[in-house]
Amino acid sequence: MFKGIKTIFFLFFLNLIQSSFAQSGILFSETGLKTALELGKSENKPIMLWCYATWCPHCKYMKTEVFPNLRVADFFNRNFVTVAQDMEKGEGIELNNELKISSFPTFIFYSTNGEIVFRIEGELKPTAFITEGKNALTPQKQLPHLKEQFDKDVRNSENCFEYIHALKKAGMDLSEPVNKHFATQTDKQLLSEVNWRIFSNGISDFNSRVFQFVIGHQKEYSDIASPERVKHKLDYEVKALLSPLVEVTDTLNYVLKREQAAKIQSYSTDSLIFNYDLKIWEFSHNWQKYAECCLQSADKFSSNNPAKLSEIAGNFLKHIEKLALLQQALHWANHSLSLDEEYDTYLLCAKLYMKLKDSPNALKMSENAKNLARKFGWEGTEAEQLLKEIH
Length: 391
What we know:
This protein is mainly α. It has helices at 2-24, 33-43, 57-66, 70-79, 91-99, 126-137, 143-152, 157-170, 175-182, 187-190, 193-202, 209-216, 218-224, 227-247, 251-262, 267-283, 287-302, 306-319, 323-339, 343-355, 359-376, 381-390, and strands at residues 47-52, 81-86, 106-110, 116-121.
């Protein structure tokens, strides 16, 4: 009887401890990095610095969903001195500049002698967070070791990839080791799976020798890696190159950078460039360039996209007066209808016919719009008004 009571009491006490521990989670100090480094040295424990910002949603997720996790709290509280720092207040501002943090949250791991040995950024699930914590404790996974291995032989592709992979997870600059490594590689050596991975993670300069080599050997890299990986990388770089220029309507630099992107000459990247062309000429109200772009490429890249065809035809209706171009816009609008019967597209066709002085077909398209609206119980006011206008 007494043993049973002792067991029940022990289980209750253990559950109470676990509940309290889970609620407290990782025991972050807010006394600053310097104090944490001193404590780590005295306790012979490495230090984990959590760099956060109060507005960061990923930081809030880690704080509410990951740090309180029992396994996470147990692992990090046992193995590290943990310290938190708002990088936009107090000493965090200077520390942020020193550490060159590009995104939040970032976790920086220090050895007992204050050397940065590991670093990761971004939101992680509990199991992944513990895995990265274990990596931070493993000398072979730490940045000083990986750098040392790379520096011993910069020609070694495997060592280079391991090092830059760690740097990328850390949100740190990869350019120096990547450029050093590729400077040692012949064209034949570039055609390897590991060098593809180094390129994919570390090269974005369209004018670099390696990028130009990849452009000229897309088929070989598709065989080495996969067509999907090659497409993803090249598409990503075109977006990174052109999208910021489109957003600010920088037409001068856009034209220059577009020439670089166009050298890739793949259907996927050419399609992206076409859509960026449409945006920048529309944003800059250069309807002549817009029309030239559509005449050259709309049939190739939008022939199966009814929404895009209607959008283009609608812009021609609003901004183009040349009859031959309006006829072309009508062709795209009619093709859009053949792919997807839409009320608005019927109205668009009717307006284009009216602008072309073709009242019979304008009437027909307006009637079709009215009938479609009636069929689905939609409001057909615009179709009714258009019919009156035509009559």
